[in-house]
Known about the structure:
Blueprint: H1 2-9, E1 13-16, E2 21-23, E3 31-33, E4 42-46, E5 51-57, H2 66-77, E6 81-85, H3 88-113
Parallel strand pairs: 5-6
Antiparallel strand pairs: 1-4, 2-3, 4-5
Amino acid sequence: EPIREVCRRLHLRCERNNTGLARGFSNTKQVLRLHTAGTWDLTVYVPDAVCVIMCECKMPGEGLEPDQVEWAKVYRACGFELIVATSVQQFLNELNEIRARRMHERKVKEAVHA
C-alpha cells in the first residue's frame, strides 16, 4: 500500500494484481479466479518514460518464488521494466533510474533519426 500511495502522489497509475480466488458479487457460491500464481504485486504505468513497470514487494532478504521468476521472464520479453522493492525508497530510486535511462534512450534514438 505505501508504494501505491507514492504512485498516487506522483500521478502514476498503479494497479494491484491480486492472485488466487474471490467470491462473486452476488449471494451465490460463485468464485472468481484472479491473476495466476506468480503474477507480480503491482503494475505501474509511467507515460513520461513510455513504459510499464512490474513491481514485486518483498521483505529484505526474501527472493522471488519460482512462479514469480517465470513471470519475470514473460514481463522482460514483453519489454516491461521490473522492480523488486524492499522499501518505498528503493522503489523510488529504481523508478527514477528507469525514467532517466528511458528518457536518455529516447533522446539518443531521436538524435539518430534526425
